[in-house]
Design brief:
It is found in: Cell inner membrane. One of its GO terms (molecular function) is ATP binding. The protein is an alpha/beta fold. The protein has one domain: P-loop containing nucleotide triphosphate hydrolases (Rossmann fold, 3-Layer(aba) Sandwich), CATH 3.40.50.300. The chain is 34% helix and 23% strand. The N terminus is likely disordered. The structure holds adenosine-5'-triphosphate (ATP). The site of adenosine-5'-triphosphate (ATP) has 11 residues, from helix 1.
Amino acid sequence: MPITNTSAAITPASQPLFMLKSQSIGWGQKTVLEALDLKIEEGEKVAVVGKSGAGKSTLIHTLYQQHPEKIAYCSQEYGLVPSLSVFHNIYMGQLDQHHFAYNLVNLLRPIKSQITKIQPLAETLGLQAHLFNPAERLSGGQQQRVALARTLFQNKDIFIGDEPISSVDEVQSEHILALIMSHHNTTILTLHNADLALRFCSRIIGIRNGKIELDCATQDLSASQLRSLYQD
Ligand SMILES: Nc1ncnc2c1ncn2[C@@H]1O[C@H](COP(=O)(O)OP(=O)(O)OP(=O)(O)O)[C@@H](O)[C@H]1O
């Protein structure tokens, strides 16, 4: 007798968290990256590197779209509400977890338990002195840290960040990358700083000339391979 339904008997091999199969990606009619084949497993720490305009943001945005509900996504545009306080901007990371009325009360008069939750995060990111200042009064680097705090406050398993440390100094960059790594199981970042990519990530994906030119474990990567990505 033929077996018509094998799905219950056979356990399917686990799927990669992210997968692109011969997929071309871009914006509107414009193709940025062609015929991509890519798998990213749960738990990986991936850096996407390459020259400006190579297509790094395009790639990570495409990956984000595969599981938007599971991902804390930090884009290059901070998306802050300028007139609201740092506290309120960070709180927005969990806006969808509360009732409208609760959010409204917290907007008018910050709820103590929320302050208690947000304060340590603000402190870790050097924002404690500005917690109740409007975001618009902060420097660019401080605003970037507010956007990052809001993303971390989402408490998701996966972090995708587009240059999350582009406006902060070297010491802060290391601290922030360590924080991102410790808060998320799977991390995918675009980074301009190749040294930091090598130190904090276990896999490097290099983009050049509209394709993935390099995809390897950090430990197997030579400095000259990495440099070649930045040549014309
Ligand atoms: N929202 C968008 N709409 C239309 N085209 C876009 C958009 N974002 C990026 N592009 C185009 O896609 C191409 C790749 O840009 P992308 O931002 O992915 O590069 P990148 O490697 O992230 O650059 P950078 O390091 O400067 O951020 C560029 O030609 C850019 O003009």
